[in-house]
Specification:
This protein is of the alpha+beta class. It is built from 18 helices and 48 strands. The strands form 13 sheets. It has an eight-stranded parallel sheet. A six-stranded antiparallel sheet has the order 17-18-19-24-21-22.
Length: 920
């Protein structure tokens, strides 16, 4: 074990004992702390779907279920079925994975799945997300003994094995009286009821032993039922208790139902129930104890309540450490690009890390889309959303694409359709260079090292590494090679394999490039150079990384901590040695779509004394009212670490977090404190020679909650009974939200209140005689038990008037080549808005035709039965599905007729316009 890992393991022990973040009774004893490096900040992950990697044992292809694909789920000619890969196949290719520089193998869920769900295509559970038995490996993939052999082999080679796990749902087994896969019913419309029939809000009891007893027949909006053949299908046995599921119907992934709804019928666990919490903890403890699993990636984390994570995370981590797993690591999938939201799970929810979806978005923007280098500067400046006393951004896994959203190889081709293979390869390599040289733990999605592309996400990005029989995969082009998917693709000489292998080797040889402090240095105003330094606090050697996303060579003068000092090149093209100027700037010319790395000869000059430090701000954070944004100013220009401390009321001073790069800041989580609670902050700067200086204190107070109305949408039209929905930040089970409405600037009128979190809803019955476009306003006020109140901004809408019976879509093609009404451009439509008689006439080879062509625009009249529902559409030629020749870009588009009964679209433009745009 390396010295760094020994120190990290010791720090983990201290953290377990509560010694890493001491309380300080007086303000004179505040220490200058080091920026945290958890035991896992230098991993290189390889994310692999076992079914799609290598087939080591063809005898298990059918999972012991027979030859019928609709029973076994095995059909190697279809991308939605098992294709034959297994754990023995992974083991047979483990040295190929290791040769890439991999230190950790991350497996998609490998538990026993429901082999086929006929409702979904049909499709099979090859991906692992339809679990029926949480205690055994899926028979299509092998056995528990095969997993043990794989983990042992990985450990012998110095690698770890991570399991992808699920706590949010199981396979679709539960149905409802009256039919399966029903629409979602909100808690406001039908609350939960105890077994005795008394209504209650589950959030008031989340994770508590006092959670009320439930009954299948009285507690839920739908009565859950099991097929007699599936009464005891799930393992462990407690999963067969239908009262341990939310039973509210399918989610639309919005608001309350994103927590409580079924994912396309998958049985959504009642994670607020203490039996579910304890059961899931026991399940995953067993995999640590019995198989030596080294960590978990946690699926669908944002769809599970906070109280679950606040118990699950610390207990599982403590258990793993007690089993000798000092570097055990868990990270969750939070599919969102907003740091104020994604960081919530590592701060308030006490989890170690989340997958860095914001990084993926920023990396694609820089490397594939050629966006301004300044956007990367802005992105990295927000890293301190993740900084707290026991975690920070350095441990987040970073990635470029995945099994859901698609591959980086697809992104570079889709974003640059006119470029050739050489440019696509360069952009792909540039994205990997950014990922490997910047903070976080890089994740390579299997096949990316072989130039896999594919036309998009989900099944289309799940190609086999072994020779494929799937027609859709056989059509794919691969980057950097003449190979196809008709052959095995385990080519260690592939240019991307070699590039990634080289990046892993370089960062292994120079650990500061993996987990050293990352300091912003330079960003071009447009496409061009983005530069940062990496620096290990012990070695004090500065590494300068400069990336160029322009298609021309770019020169930049990059600040450093060392004046008039020599640097030597470690990576990329350029002079072997360069020297900084008297003001510490290093002038580098970076080739197009490339990266260079230079290392300082020797150490950064030592500081003679700690600089002055001051708290420059302590205000409510923008985007998260449960956080206080605390900033510090440092009067110096060298490598510093700034420790932030907070004193709540008259309590002890406690560390909030440590920032090792400017701008020095933390986003203190105060969501558990009462609004108005006084808080004081101090900062201690630690220089690179161990000197410290302490700031004066700065007073602040916990802000009042922020109330926001989610529905109806601003400026929309409404009629009849209107759903008015609000959310509160920070969310607390003790909130009560009251709603008011006024019409035409009249008096405010109460319309109801709601105390059931996380979404607060009332239904407002509007007067039937409102004239069209009459202004209507809503506002919401939260009240807490201590008397704190806060009111939302006013939401302004308009009365809709009579139901629209026809919507009109206007379509413009500059050449006017709409074709005739039988074979020309038409609309494929679906949804509850369109007259069923119209939908009955539409097929992919027979789209809805234009009604007329006027003023150069083709106009499509669409008969409606419900204007409050969206019209969903695709514009294409009959049976055409090739963008842009026979299908317009933009994917599935929609508009809401009650708001805009007329819309406009233009050839080649994915925008749906609500007024006629200028055209030529």
């Amino acid at each position: 074990m390396s010295v760094r890992r020994v120190l990290a393991a010791f720090a983990a022990i201290l953290a377990t004992l509560g010694l890493a973040t001491p309380a300080v009774a007086g303000d004179r004893g505040l220490s200058g702390l080091h920026s945290l490096r958890s035991p896992v900040t230098d991993e290189s992950f390889y994310f692999v779907m076992a079914d799609r990697f290598a087939n080591g044992d063809p005898s298990n292809d059918q999972g012991g279920l027979g030859s019928d694909p609709l029973v076994s789920g095995f059909d190697p000619t279809k991308k939605g079925f098992y294709n034959g890969g297994d754990l023995k196949g992974l083991l047979s290719r483990i040295d190929y994975i290791r040769g890439l520089g991999t230190t950790s193998i991350w497996l998609t869920p490998s538990f026993k799945n429901k082999a086929v769900q006929l409702e979904d295509g049909p499709s099979a559970g090859y991906h692992g997300y339809w679990i029926t038995d949480f205690t055994q490996i899926d028979p299509h993939l092998g056995s528990n003994a095969d997993l043990r052999a794989l983990i042992d082999a990985a450990h012998e080679r110095g690698m770890k094995v991570y399991f992808d796990i699920i706590t949010n749902h199981t396979a679709d087994v539960i149905g409802y009286e009256g039919g399966a896969r029903r629409g979602y019913v909100s808690k406001d419309a039908v609350p939960y009821r105890t077994a005795a029939g008394a209504p209650f809000d589950d959030r008031d009891f989340a994770g508590k032993a006092s959670f009320p007893p439930l009954s299948p027949t009285t507690s839920f909006p739908y009565t859950p039922v099991l097929d007699p053949a599936e009464q005891n299908l799930k393992v462990p046995a407690w999963l067969n208790d239908v009262t341990l599921y939310h039973n509210r119907g399918d989610t639309t992934f919005v608001g309350e139902n994103s927590y409580y709804g079924d994912f396309f019928g998958l049985d959504d666990l009642f994670t607020e129930h203490p039996r579910v919490v304890a059961g899931m903890i026991d399940v995953y403890k067993a995999w640590i104890r019995d198989f030596g699993v080294d960590g978990f990636r946690i699926d669908t984390m944002k769809h599970v309540d906070d109280e679950f994570w606040q118990e699950f995370g610390p207990e599982v981590l403590d258990y793993a450490r007690a089993q000798g797993k000092r570097e055990f690591f868990m990270f969750g999938e939070v599919f969102d690009t907003t740091k104020s939201f994604t960081s919530h799970f590592t701060t308030a929810d006490k989890m170690q890390a989340v997958l860095d979806f914001p990084f993926q978005d920023a990396a694609r923007g820089f490397a594939s889309r050629g966006q301004s280098a300044g956007q990367l500067a802005t992105f990295f400046a927000g890293d301190d959303w993740y900084t707290d006393a026991d975690s920070n951004v350095y441990q987040l896994p970073t990635f470029l694409g995945n099994h859901d959203m698609g591959r980086i190889g697809h992104f570079v081709t889709a974003d640059n359709p006119a470029a050739g293979d050489a440019e696509w390869l360069s952009r792909d390599r540039l994205a990997h260079e950014l990922m490997y040289f910047s903070r976080g733990n890089p994740v390579v999605y299997y096949g990316d090292e072989q130039g896999f592309t594919g036309p998009g996400g989900d099944q289309n990005a799940r190609q086999t590494m072994f020779a494929s029989q799937v027609p859709d995969y056989l059509d794919d082009d691969l980057l950097g090679t003449a190979a196809t998917h008709a052959q095995d693709n385990f080519v260690s000489g592939h240019p991307l394999y070699q590039s990634i292998r080289g990046l892993a080797a370089l960062t292994r040889a120079h650990p500061a490039l993996r987990d050293g402090a990352q300091v912003h240095r330079y960003a071009a105003g447009g496409p061009g150079v983005y530069a940062f330094s990496r620096l290990d606090r012990h070695e004090q050697r500065e590494y300068v990384v400069a990336l160029n996303n322009s298609e021309q060579a770019q020169t930049a003068a990059i600040p450093t901590y060392a004046a008039k000092r020599g640097f030597h090149r470690l990576y990329g093209g350029g002079p072997a040695r360069v020297k900084s100027t008297s003001d510490g700037k290093l002038t580098l010319t970076v080739p197009p779509l490339s990266t260079v790395v230079y290392a300082l000869d020797g150490r950064v000059p030592g500081s003679k004394a700690a600089p002055a430090v001051s708290i420059t701000g302590a205000t409510a954070a923008e985007g998260a009212r449960g956080r206080i944004h605390v900033t510090a100013g440092v009067a110096g220009s060298s490598f510093y670490e700034v420790s932030f401390y907070a004193q709540v009321g008259n309590g002890s001073w406690r560390p909030v977090g440590v920032d090792d790069n400017p701008p020095y800041q933390v986003f203190h989580d105060v969501s558990g404190l009462r609004a108005g609670t006084p808080v004081r902050y101090k900062a201690v700067v630690l220089d690179n020679r161990g000197h410290t200086a302490t700031s004066a204190s700065r007073a602040a107070s916990v802000p009042t909650p922020l109330v926001s109305i989610e529905a109806p949408s601003e400026g929309s039209r409404v009629r009849g009974t209107v759903e008015v929905r609000a959310v509160v930040d920070p969310e607390r089970a003790t909130h009560t939200v009251s709603f008011e409405r006024r019409v035409a600037a009249g008096a405010w009128t109460p319309i109801g209140s709601d105390a059931s979190s996380p979404a607060y809803t009332v239904f407002d019955a509007l007067p039937a005689d409102l004239a069209s476009d009459t202004p209507i306003e809503y506002r919401a006020t939260v009240r807490e038990p201590d008397g704190t109140t806060a009111t939302s901004p006013v939401r302004r809408v308009r009365a809709a008037g009579p139901q629209a019976t026809v919507a009109t879509l206007h379509y413009f093609r500059p050449a006017g080549d709409y074709g005739d009404q039988q074979t020309g451009w038409g609309l494929h439509m679906w949804g509850d808005a369109v007259d069923p008689a119209t939908l009955g006439q539409i097929a992919w080879d027979n789209p809805w035709p234009w009604t007329r062509v006027e003023g150069g625009w083709a106009e499509y009249d669409i008969p409606l039965v419900q204007d409050t529902q969206p019209v969903n559409f695709i514009m294409h030629l009959p049976a055409g599905d090739s963008v842009p020749d026979t299908r317009e870009p933009g994917g599935d588009r929609s508009f809401l007729p009650i708001n805009t009964p007329e819309v406009w679209i233009v050839q080649g433009d994915p925008t749906v316009y609500t007024s006629q745009p200028p055209v030529q």
